[in-house]
Write a structure and sequence with these properties.
GO terms for molecular function: GTPase activator activity; lipid binding. InterPro entries: START-like_dom_sf, START_lipid-bd_dom. It comes from Aquarana catesbeiana (American bullfrog). By secondary structure, this protein is α+β, with helices and mostly antiparallel strands. It has a domain at about 10-40. It has three helices and six strands, in the order H-E-E-E-H-H-E-E-E. The protein has helices at about 10-35, 80-85, 90; strands at about 45, 50-55, 65-70, 95-105, 110-115, 125-130. The strands form two sheets. It has a three-stranded antiparallel sheet with strand order 1-2-3, with no helix packed on it. The two termini are about 25 Å apart.
Length: about 130
């Protein structure tokens, strides 16, 4: 495995954090615009039973791949569903090897590291995400 990810705070980190906030705000605006248009720009795909799966192609260079959307109805509050996704990955991701929170930036933002196993001879995949 590679060396642990180190989080530093400083001028560059503040600029990156502000850019991330702006990117998240833009993503939220895109989502609200799509919802207002009733997701007409999305292409539906066959998937699992009771799961809506769709993708769309994005016209700018910010997203070199398709953007995917998945929705499902749950008998849980949004908070409970979010906590299940964020805190209990080991219960729903069978390829998960390890996970940890590297840093908590504020009460709603953290830097999260996890690794998943792959089929041999492909090495495990590691991810560091801002969530």
């Amino acid at each position: 495995m590679s060396a642990p990810f180190k989080v530093t705070r400083g001028t560059n980190s503040l600029a990156a954090y502000c850019n991330t906030l702006k990117s998240l705000e833009n993503s939220m605006q895109d989502l609200l615009r799509d919802a207002k248009d009733k997701f007409r720009s999305w292409v539906a795909c066959a998937g699992f039973e009771n799961v809506e799966l769709a993708y769309k192609k994005v016209e700018n260079n910010d997203y070199p791949i398709r953007v995917w959307k998945v929705s499902i109805e749950l008998n849980a509050t949004p908070y409970v569903a979010l906590q299940y996704i964020l805190r209990e990955q080991h219960t729903w991701d069978s390829s998960l090897q390890q996970s940890k929170i590297l840093d908590t930036l504020d009460e709603d933002t953290e830097i999260y590291h996890y690794s998943t196993e792959s089929m041999p001879p492909i090495p495990c995949k590691e991810y560091v995400i801002l969530r």
